[in-house]
Amino acid sequence: MNQPxxxxxxxxxxxxxxxxxxxxxxxxxxxxxxxGFLPCWIRMAPWSLTFWLSFEQIRKMIGASGY
Length: 67
Hints:
Distance between the termini: 41 Å
Largest sheet: none
Radius of gyration: 21 Å
Number of strands: 0
Shape: elongated
């Protein structure tokens, strides 16, 4: 999304998504696809836990039955 483009608006580094995937795996290895996974998980896990625990408690308080 942030690659330089030519005068016609075509990307200079990649021809498309599959080409980007292929080049990334070839240059950096398969593990490069998971860069940022741990920081994202660390950021999202507490929120998800808080949301679902609160959601279940609110459902119990209003008397909602199971799904």
